[in-house]
Write a structure and sequence with these properties.
With 700 residues, this protein is an alpha/beta fold. It folds into four domains: 58 residues, DNA polymerase, domain 1, CATH 1.10.150; 98 residues, OB fold (Dihydrolipoamide Acetyltransferase, E2P) (Beta Barrel); 211 residues, P-loop containing nucleotide triphosphate hydrolases (Rossmann fold); 157 residues, P-loop containing nucleotide triphosphate hydrolases (Rossmann fold). The protein has 24 helices and 22 strands. A nine-stranded mixed beta sheet has the order 12-11-10-13-9-14-15-8-16, sandwiched between helices. Strands 17-22-21-18-20-19 form a six-stranded parallel beta sheet, sandwiched between helices. It has a five-stranded mixed beta barrel with strand order 2-3-4-6-5. Strand 3 and strand 4 form a beta hairpin. The protein is globular and about 95 Å long. The structure holds adenosine-5'-diphosphate and magnesium ion. The site of adenosine-5'-diphosphate has 14 residues, from helix 10.
Length: 700
């Protein structure tokens, strides 16, 4: 007997090759297959008598095949299968290209149902390339709303329909895990009904209701997961850092010494952080801000609060270069404060004792940290995780940069909890920072109800980066411009087009651009190359050279590190600009304009599509990453936002991210349920479902 747990290998007519393809999609059991949903439908529900059929319509007809044959077309040398179909009202022609085997299944005298578009040829009206099936059985491919599944290697929608249909009865076995009251309040379809209807809906309305129910499930689980995660975090203890008069004076003094004033966003963020850290439950705040919006300074103020209260603080960065950058910035900002700072990366260990900065062995630094002789420790994630013991760590700052997603957040929390902070039974306050500009509503969805601070205003006096769309004929003049910039000592980035289907192609295109620039255009200049297939060490090496101006022009795929500060770089040239999302283009642009020099961003595109040009124009006109992310959301949908696709959200949840009503509803319901029953004791089905979800998230 087939159940939801039956492995797909044991299903009838599923061969080893199909098994392979299904496994690639993560489908291992009959249940998995049943939960593989279509993403749209072909509407073939309009049955017509042949005499009523009109050119341009998408119709379904029922009739008998009078004759059918393969002919070779003279032009283009293709095989054309043509058939004549008759019903009570008339006869119509149907044609298929390059499917000669059709004559094996469709023989004269067979009664069939056909669905497709009516076109006009010199022989008259015809159905071209219609979907077909023999009459008699229930309709799968014609004469109804026909489910279309995402194309995947080796698995056609037709194959999926045939194999999913017999499993529909299993949907009764699927455990209804939504609490009765939620189903009622939200007026949702029952689970088994929703599964039947999402595959083979009775009509449009049924399809919509099914989608709503199943999307609700995914979003609800995300919300529940995030809110539970948050509860769990807040149940832990942290050291409360009392913000007293003395501390206030200390901060004031620090701010007075700064050569600039904080932006309003920075002030608010710092204040919230101070308030968070006063509590004895741990802070878990996300600081979102465009590149250059001054996140590091906010972090350093938090560090100051912790350190001046006698605790240690930690800043973790994703790469060595970024760690070094934070180290340099801290030395500058904390100059004269006698705060002791340690830098720990795979290749460097440095120590600032409050007066002098020097290289020390890793062992010495580790022991200084353990003895509490380093107030601020800066390092790469990997290293800190490994072996650092603190004496009294009260604050961890995690600079995630572009890392984003529900599993990353969960991971960050557990990483930070695991650090040996030197206290019994506490965790440090956690501040994460990201440069991914995600609109607030979206962030709240993907992260549940998190504490979020957004820096949406750039520090004053920042130079505007001039952005230009370059017509294909003006490539030369751009190259000349770059040469002039290099002559006067500046540097340039060249970003190669994103090729999503293939890393290999992307690397190839970058390598070609690199060779062209090096050999033909700028044989006299130093050109560097950076791509995702290089080892981390090699990448660091190239970036190091670039930051020392030993490379004039850096050719890179989209991997170029977010957050890298090269104030001397003034040109950002982006090839195939239309292939990137607005927010991502904006991040590239943010790589320049970080110094005192006027910077420029050149956009190249071969695309002639009006839509692509409108998007690029938006980039030219708009300077704020958040506004651009919002525009991207409107123009391309949520799935295309930087980070969101990597967020680990299930498909339907992803597709429903622009449905703010549904998001709101799921968030509310999750909150209501957890407020009543934090441990889900009364909802065992829901609890076991959320456990599965948790496991999936951690396996990603
Ligand atoms: P990001 O948000 O990308 O991490 P940074 O923190 O690196 O940005 O800040 C970029 C630069 O702007 C740094 O050199 C920093 O000192 C400076 N900066 C930060 N805040 C301000 C401000 N309020 N006014 C002027 N410059 C600022
Ligand atoms: Mg930064």
């Amino acid at each position: 007997m087939i159940t939801l747990k039956t492995p797909i290998e044991e299903l009838p007519q599923v061969g080893p090759r199909n098994v392979l393809y299904l496994h690639k999609l993560g489908i291992r059991t009959a249940g998995d297959l049943l939960f593989h949903f279509p993403f749209r439908y072909d509407d073939f529900s309009d049955f017509k008598a042949i005499k009523d059929v009109e050119v341009g319509q998408v119709v379904s007809i029922k009739g008998e095949i009078l004759e059918i044959q393969n002919v070779r077309t003279r032009r283009r040398n293709m095989i054309l299968t043509e058939a004549a179909i008759e019903d009570d009202s008339g006869v119509i022609r149907a044609v298929w290209f390059n499917q000669p085997f059709l004559t094996n299944s469709l023989k004269a005298g067979t009664n069939v149902s056909l669905s497709g578009k009516v076109t006009f040829a010199k022989e008259g009206m015809q159905l071209s390339g219609p979907a077909w099936e023999a009459l008699g059985k229930s309709n799968l491919h014609t004469g109804r709303l026909v489910p279309v599944y995402h194309e995947t290697e080796g698995l056609s929608s037709k194959w999926l329909r045939v194999h999913i249909k017999p499993l529909l009865s299993l949907s009764d076995e699927a455990t209804e895990f939504l609490p009765e009251e939620v189903l009622e309040r939200q007026d949702l379809l029952g689970l088994s009904e929703a599964i039947r209807q999402i595959h083979f809906p009775d009509d449009d309305v049924a399809a919509e209701l099914a989608k709503r129910r199943l999307a609700f499930d995914e979003l609800f689980l995300v919300q529940l997961y995030m809110q539970r995660q948050r509860q769990e975090w807040q149940r832990q203890k942290a050291v409360g850092i009392r913000y007293d008069k003395e501390l206030e004076a200390e901060i004031k003094y620090f701010l007075e010494k700064l050569p600039f004033k904080l932006t309003d966003g920075q002030k608010i963020a710092v204040w919230k952080i101070i308030k968070d850290m006063e509590k004895d439950s741990p802070m878990n705040r996300l600081l979102e801000g465009d590149v250059g919006s001054g996140k590091t300074l906010v972090a350093l103020l938090a560090v100051l609060v912790a350190v001046r209260s006698g605790y240690q603080a930690l800043i973790m960065a994703p790469t060595e270069i970024l760690a070094r950058q934070h180290f340099a910035e801290s030395l500058k900002r904390f100059h004269g404060t006698n705060i002791r700072i340690a830098l720990l990366t795979g290749s460097e260990s440095r120590y600032f004792d409050g007066r002098d900065e020097k290289s020390l062995t890793k062992e010495k630094i580790l022991s200084a940290i353990k003895k509490g002789e380093a107030d601020l420790v800066i390092g790469t994630h990997a290293l800190i995780q490994e072996k650092v013991f603190f004496k009294s760590l009260a604050l961890s700052v995690v600079d995630e940069q572009h890392r984003f997603g529900i599993e990353q957040r969960a991971q960050t929390q557990s990483e930070v909890s695991d650090i040996e902070d030197g206290f019994v039974a506490t965790v440090p306050h956690l501040l994460s920072m990201t440069a991914t500009p995600i609109p607030r509503t979206l962030a709240l969805t993907v992260y549940g109800d998190l504490d979020l601070s957004i820096l949406n205003e750039m520090p004053k006096g920042r130079q505007k980066i001039i952005t230009e769309l370059v017509a294909p004929g003006n490539r030369e003049s751009t190259y000349d411009f770059i040469r002039k910039e290099i002559k006067s000592g500046r540097q340039a980035f060249v970003i190669c087009p994103l090729i999503e289907e293939s890393d290999v192609l992307e690397v190839k295109s970058a390598t070609e651009t690199f060779e062209k620039l090096e050999k033909e255009i700028y044989p006299d200049l130093a050109i560097g190359l950076l791509h995702g297939k290089m080892k981390p060490k090699e990448k660091e090496e190239v970036m190091k050279k670039f930051s020392k101006n030993k490379i004039n022009i850096l050719v890179s795929t989209s991997v170029v590190e977010v957050g890298i500060d090269i104030p001397n770089a003034t040109v950002m040239l982006i090839e195939g600009a239309d292939r990137f999302g607005l927010a991502q283009l904006h991040q590239f642009r943010g790589r320049v304009g970080r110094g005192e020099f006027q910077s420029r961003c050149f956009l190249f595109t071969d695309s002639t599509s009006g839509k692509a040009h409108r998007r690029l124009k938006a980039l030219i006109e708009c300077e704020s990453g958040f506004d651009l992310a919002q525009k991207d959301l409107e123009l391309r949908g949520p799935g295309e936002l930087v980070g969101v696709r990597q967020s680990g959200l299930p498909d339907l949840a992803m597709a429903s991210l622009s449905d703010s009503e549904l998001i709101q509803a799921t968030r509310e319901e999750a909150k209501v349920i957890l407020e009543m029953d934090a441990d889900l004791k009364k909802y065992p089905e829901l609890l076991s479902r959320i456990r599965i979800f948790e496991k999936d998230v951690h396996l990603e």
